[in-house]
Amino acid sequence: MKKPLVGALFSVLLLGAGVAPATAATVPAGDAAAPPVAVKAKAKAVNFAGTVALSNCSGSVVRTPTSQPGDPALVLSNGHCMETGFPGPGEVVRDQPSTRSFTLLNASGSGVGTLRASKIAYGTMTDTDISVYQLTKTYAQIESTYGIKALELNASHPVQGTAITVVSGYWKRTYACNIDGFVYRVKEGSWTWKDSVRYTSACQTIGGTSGSPVIDNATGKVVAVNNTGNEDGQRCTDNNPCEVDESGNVTVRQGINYAQETYGIVPCIGPGNQFDLNRAGCALPKP
């Protein structure tokens, strides 16, 4: 995973940025025989509105298609960006109290206010690399105070070839590229992630971009969360993830970066923006 930052220094935390190209895509088990291909659509302007800066990573205020204005708002980042440290393989964090603060950005990337968490609603580095914080303010309160709307999580699997932008609230910087393909398994050190997004090489993300939303330029919706890249060409080690196909073949792509899909979060969030891992269609790891 890409390194988050501590203060102004790079730490040896997992990667949370992405770098990334490639050409071959591996279809994960359960998906269609061939990955879907993006249809060209008129791109929308992607900006910083709704993104946040953490102390060491990036993130975004997000909503599901059914979230209501009066629901407590949610912030999405990486599991390896949690203030509690990296969750171990198989570990899931649920409803853990948190007072973490987030700097909310406007369209131009200026900080307009501070949001605060009430809890870590969900966090894991198993199968995926996500953390979702519940805030003390509702979407309506945030919009009323700051004029900022939450980014919507796309409820469908992302599509190969889609033009995307990785938006880092930490660095106030964007990275534009395309989804190169999907990886059956990405393995890094002790962690393994399923059906990961691989970027094309134009997205040369860096430490501190961990947790950045990956936005579909055509829809403006979040399709993934940026999390890692192979820095040194090593094989399956920390900061040097490898790709593993369904037959167990390993591919190392130095300089390539990856993200974790977010559509699977949507079925797990019910009324009131509360996580319910027993909801129909929810496949996130359970504690």
Please characterize this protein's 3D structure:
With 287 residues, the chain is mainly beta. It folds into two domains: 5-28 and 158-264, Thrombin, subunit H (Beta Barrel), CATH 2.40.10.10; 51-152, Thrombin, subunit H (Beta Barrel). Helices cover 3% and strands 38% of the residues. It contains one helix and 18 strands. The protein has one helix at 139-146, and strands at residues 5-6, 9-10, 51-53, 58-63, 72-77, 92-97, 101-105, 111-124, 130-138, 151-152, 163-168, 173-188, 191-199, 213-216, 222-229, 242-244, 250-251, 257-261. The strands form three sheets. It has a six-stranded antiparallel β-barrel with strand order 3-4-5-9-8-7. The radius of gyration is 17 Å and the shape is globular. The model is unreliable at 6-42 (pLDDT under 50).
Q: How would you briefly describe this protein structure?
A:
This protein is mainly β and 287 residues long. It contains one helix and 18 strands.
Please tell me the overall pLDDT: 89
Helicity, as a percent range: under 10%
Principal-axes shape call: globular
For the sheet with most strands, the description reads: 6 strands, antiparallel, barrel
In terms of per-residue confidence, which ranges show pLDDT below 50 for 5 or more consecutive residues? 6-42
**Oligomeric state of shown chains:** single chain
CATH architecture of the largest domain: Beta Barrel
Order of helices and strands: EEEEEEEEEHEEEEEEEEE
Question: Using DSSP, what is the number of strands?
Answer: 18
Distance between the termini: 22 Å
